[in-house]
Amino acid sequence: MRNKRTLPKLSSVLLALVLAGSGATFANASAQRRRAPKPSPQASHASEAMSAEARELVERAIDVACRERRKDPKGSVPIDEMQARPSLPVRSEEAIAGSERAQRLLPMAKELVIEFLDRLATEYKFSSRSSRLKLQQAIQRVRMVRRIRPDMDSRDNASVLMRNPVTITFGTIFLAGLPSDEAMISVLGHELVHIADGDHDALLALYRALGKRASSLTGLDIRAQRAEELTCDVVGALAARKFVTATPDYDPLPRRVSRALAHNCVAEDEGDEDHLSPRNTIRALLSLNPALTYELVYGREERE
Ligand SMILES: [Zn+2]
Question: How far is the centre of ligand 1, averaged over its atoms, from the C-alpha of 225 (Å)?
Answer without folding.
Answer: 9
